[in-house]
Amino acid sequence: MQTTVTAVNSISHIAKQYWTLTKPRVVALIVFCAVIGMFLATPGLPGANALVAGTLGIWLVAGAAAAFNCLVEQQIDAVMARTRARPLPRGELNSVQTLVFSALVGGLGVWILYTFVNPLTMWLTVATFIGYAVIYTLLLKPNTPQNIVIGGASGAMPPVLGWTAVTNSVSAEALVLFLIIFVWTPPHFWSLALYRTQEYAKAGLPMLPVTHGPEFTRFHVFLYTIMLAATTAIPYAMKMSGLIYLLSAVVLNAIFIAYGYRLWKNYSDALAKRAFAFSIAYLSFLFAALLVDHYFYF
Ligand code: HEM
Ligand SMILES: CC(C)=CCC/C(C)=C/CC/C(C)=C/COP(=O)(O)OP(=O)(O)O
């Protein structure tokens, strides 16, 4: 009896380590944006194949990309307080286990997308994996403060992947959704980087506040919140979305710009933490508003 309990505990402990590797909370929002892309791609409801297999495939490949990032960055993660408790720096999992896990999970996701969705979605998802796991993590992140701006392109892909899962094509509307997440990424990340600057400096990563200082970064967070407001007007301007979306976007943008302005003029770490938390709420509500508006268009 005792041995059974111990075995169950240790299996659930190991499963939790693998689950942590996939950065579940970030990936949850990524998958949410992909699913909204699926619904927006059609006037009715997306087909069951696209919805179920598409969601599962994108989720698995995104989780594999996150695990691969944990593998590559284990030394960096060991230095920063925020990431030091991850399974690799803690020695709970080793590099081989992580690599095999990432390959299996990613491979399964790619197979599901190819077999049950369509090859276009599979190839775009593979390109997104490479964009985040290789181009961002290995090439951009250690070398340029524009790392998250350029690397943001892979984080912005999920709604496009959702869209192609349903329509097997990329349209202007899908690219607008891409653009919104692309412009949202810098104020999302730099808000966090502002109150974690010392850690990034210690880890030797050239994030914007490390290379160009906090004031420059704060001003750029503000500028990006304004560019984001302009970008989020496009769905209404092109009649892709109606008044429910517009009103939601105006409120969310007013709050985000106010955060950006206060960060610029009256900085505190506590404010930056709230701005970072709000950035996540912002994207979640904006995409939820796109969805509601899609079915109640005025
Ligand atoms: C290059 C692009 C991105 C960078 C550099 C970035 C950076 C980060 C970092 C460093 C954190 C960790 C915060 C912490 O540990 O407290 C984080 C959290 C988060 N990010 Fe991003 N992010 C990016 C793109 C995205 C995208 C595209 C999404 C979703 C669509 C997203 C959603 C989230 C969420 C939901 C969290 C909170 C996770 C939690 O509470 O544990 N991020 N991001
Ligand atoms: C296939 C597909 C849809 C892939 C999506 C790509 C993906 C997982 C993007 C997430 C972005 C992310 C976790 C950024 C964290 O930055 P970081 O890695 O610099 O953060 P860290 O310091 O917490 O490791």
TrEMBL record:
<dbReference type="InterPro" id="IPR030470">
    <property type="entry name" value="UbiA_prenylTrfase_CS"/>
</dbReference>
<comment type="pathway">
    <text>Porphyrin-containing compound metabolism; heme O biosynthesis; heme O from protoheme: step 1/1.</text>
</comment>
<keyword id="KW-1003">Cell membrane</keyword>
<feature type="transmembrane region" description="Helical">
    <location>
        <begin position="172"/>
        <end position="195"/>
    </location>
</feature>
<dbReference type="InterPro" id="IPR000537">
    <property type="entry name" value="UbiA_prenyltransferase"/>
</dbReference>
<dbReference type="InterPro" id="IPR044878">
    <property type="entry name" value="UbiA_sf"/>
</dbReference>
<comment type="similarity">
    <text>Belongs to the UbiA prenyltransferase family. Protoheme IX farnesyltransferase subfamily.</text>
</comment>
<feature type="transmembrane region" description="Helical">
    <location>
        <begin position="93"/>
        <end position="114"/>
    </location>
</feature>
<keyword id="KW-0808">Transferase</keyword>
<comment type="function">
    <text>Converts heme B (protoheme IX) to heme O by substitution of the vinyl group on carbon 2 of heme B porphyrin ring with a hydroxyethyl farnesyl side group.</text>
</comment>
<keyword id="KW-0350">Heme biosynthesis</keyword>
<keyword id="KW-0812">Transmembrane</keyword>
<feature type="transmembrane region" description="Helical">
    <location>
        <begin position="147"/>
        <end position="166"/>
    </location>
</feature>
<feature type="transmembrane region" description="Helical">
    <location>
        <begin position="51"/>
        <end position="72"/>
    </location>
</feature>
<feature type="transmembrane region" description="Helical">
    <location>
        <begin position="243"/>
        <end position="264"/>
    </location>
</feature>
<dbReference type="Pfam" id="PF01040">
    <property type="entry name" value="UbiA"/>
</dbReference>
<feature type="transmembrane region" description="Helical">
    <location>
        <begin position="120"/>
        <end position="140"/>
    </location>
</feature>
<feature type="transmembrane region" description="Helical">
    <location>
        <begin position="276"/>
        <end position="297"/>
    </location>
</feature>
<protein>
    <recommendedName>
        <fullName>Protoheme IX farnesyltransferase</fullName>
        <ecNumber>2.5.1.141</ecNumber>
    </recommendedName>
</protein>
<keyword id="KW-1133">Transmembrane helix</keyword>
<dbReference type="InterPro" id="IPR006369">
    <property type="entry name" value="Protohaem_IX_farnesylTrfase"/>
</dbReference>
<feature type="transmembrane region" description="Helical">
    <location>
        <begin position="26"/>
        <end position="45"/>
    </location>
</feature>
<keyword id="KW-0997">Cell inner membrane</keyword>
<feature type="transmembrane region" description="Helical">
    <location>
        <begin position="216"/>
        <end position="237"/>
    </location>
</feature>
<keyword id="KW-0472">Membrane</keyword>
